[in-house]
Amino acid sequence: MRILVVDDQDLNRTMLQFMLESEGYEVILAEHGKVAIDIFDDVQPDIVLLDVVMPVMDGYETAPLLKQKAGDIHLPIIFITALDDQKSMLKCLEVGGDDFLAKPFDKVILTAKIRAHQRNRELSQSVTEQNKTLLYHQNQTEREHLIVEHIFSNALNNNNFVENIVDYHLSPASMFNGDLFLANRSPMGGSYILLGDFTGHGLAAAVGALPTAQTFFAMTAKGLAVGDIAKEINSQLLRLLPDDMFCAACIIELSSHGKALSVWSGGMPDVLLINKESGIKQRIPSQHMALGILEDDEFDIDSYNFEVHPLDKLIAFTDGVIEAHNARDVMFGQERLESLYQSNPEANISDVIETLRAFCGDIEQQDDVSMCQVNCLPIEDEYRDPEEKLAPLPWQFTLNVCPDHIRETDPVSHILDMISGIKGMTKHRSTLFLVLAELYNNAVDHGLLNLDSKLKDGEDGFFNYYMQRQEALDNLTSGQVTLTASYDPDEHLVCFIVKDTGKGFNCGSVNKENHLDNQHGRGISLIGELCQSIAYSDNGTKVEVKYSTDSTSAEDMHYSI
Q1: Does 20 share its domain with 95?
Q2: Contact (CB, 8 A) for 433 and 412
Q3: Entry's SUPFAM superfamilies (predicted)?
Q4: Tell me: the pLDDT tens digits for 96-135?
């Protein structure tokens, strides 16, 4: 403990020095306030004994300067004074004094005061150190949050949707959103939308967003059904999240022609199908458990599939909307939301959010609030010119796909991306995807992996088939599939040639068997309907199809959704 004694009297300084050093304290002496200020930074005293009346700079002037130099740590200043009038003592306190020591000095009282103020000083130092530690951790946490927020923002910023078709609102209750909105275009030209609500809110709830987004974008790029997408996300979340975390979710697919909707919903409030003239047409209840709870063999992929019309729109929302409450602790509720749409079927999301905020008033938001709206309109009409002419140039390109490529990439999507970039080809993307995906999958499954389609027959046929497919694909070390795509502008024909290095099969059986009553073989019949010609050669290891760009696109046919 270091004590600074500031007094212009040599006798007082010497006496105080003797008393304090005898108690084990280190003592520094100063003749007046100016000296005390000059040496303060070097000596860093813990307590100051300060005389009031001194030449050059008195105690009244010195005390506030000493306090200022001490900063955030409490510096006890004990005034040494023979003054006993209240006015002088009050002034001592006003300028920063903490106590008084009367002359002549009493060692017992002096020591007692020093010890008392020593405790205050040590307490202040401890609090200051704790504050510094807390501030450091706070800054570290804020920095980490900013980094995580940046990662989340980039990772979830891949949404791809047509603005006139899809609208949404996300309002987090804290920095990180436990609700999730994802959207992507399908290879068939339609749109996928996912609205999710993880357990709780904040960073803990948001951690599931990354694996969900990665799986969603990977599965939608393959054009999978909403139930299959839900199953894959469920499998990922079940593996990654703790037992007490899950994700209520609604996954929607709108066909490119805007006439068909598929909805898988688990743990969410009722989805509303609304006609902009007549109001609510249908309530679509959640028929499944939330994602991340059930094992794969317990998971149900069933979805709602129904026809819609241009005046229809689908509204999905999280429970944060209907469970929001006002100052009287009354919830907004499903009934109030439906009443809003029933009275004003053309209401959009911004209208609902405005009504919700007016209802809640100044009450702090307790949960994440999210909504999305899907307008049932033809999607392609929103981003392309239906009269766009095909480029008059011929083109051709070839991909050689080895086992590693088969396991890790989707060559069909790559080829379709290239084709779609050619003027006039966008409107044919969905049909060409159907054709090439079927040919490529047949070449891999039956050519390289030598799987039998009859495995798909039976109650668990598809499950057993794909289990064997995955196992065979994991063990595949050799073989190749060659994909060639070309265009003849004179004949208006797109040609696909798919060749594999497998054993082949009896080509003649393709034209003789009727597969439409089986769980397998439907793809080849479908290609026969879509394309001008299909021909196998080289003992079934090579197939060539020709598609006329004058044909009706797949999304306008009866079997397309």
Answers
A1: yes
A2: yes
A3: ATPase domain of HSP90 chaperone/DNA topoisomerase II/histidine kinase (SSF55874), CheY-like (SSF52172), PP2C-like (SSF81606)
A4: 999 988 888 889 999 999 999 999 999 999 998 999 899 9
DSSP labels, 354-379: HHHHHHHTTPPP-S-EEEEEEE-S-S
Q: How far apart are CA 370 and CA 372, in angstroms?
A: 7
Number of Cβ within a 10 Å radius of residue 185: 18
Contacts of residue 552, defined as CB under 8 A and 6 or more positions apart, other chains included, come to none
Encode 463-478: b = buried (16+ Cβ within 10 Å), e = exposed. eebeeebeeebeebee
Euclidean distance between CA atoms 349 and 369, whole angstroms: 12
Identify whether 48 is part of a domain: yes
Q: What is the pTM of this model?
A: 0.56
- H helices within 323-410, ranges in order? 333-343, 349-360, 403-408
Q: Is residue 348 part of a domain?
A: yes
Residue 356 lies in a domain: yes
Please give the share of the chain, as a percent, with pLDDT higher than 70.
Answer: 88
End-to-end CA distance of the chain: 83
Domain boundary among 127, 148, 168: 127
Q: Are residues 530 and 497 in the same domain?
A: yes
69 vs 208, residue with greater confidence: 69
Q: What is the CA radius of gyration of the chain?
A: 39
Domain span including residue 174: 157-382
In a domain, 94, yes or no: yes
Same domain, 171 and 269: yes
CATH number, domain at 245? 3.60.40.10
Q: Is 434 exposed, middle or buried (0-12, 13-18, 19+ CB in 10 A)?
A: buried
Q: What's the CATH number where 97 sits? A: 3.40.50.2300
Strands of the sheet containing 542-548, edge to edge, are 395-401, 481-488, 493-500, 542-548, 533-537
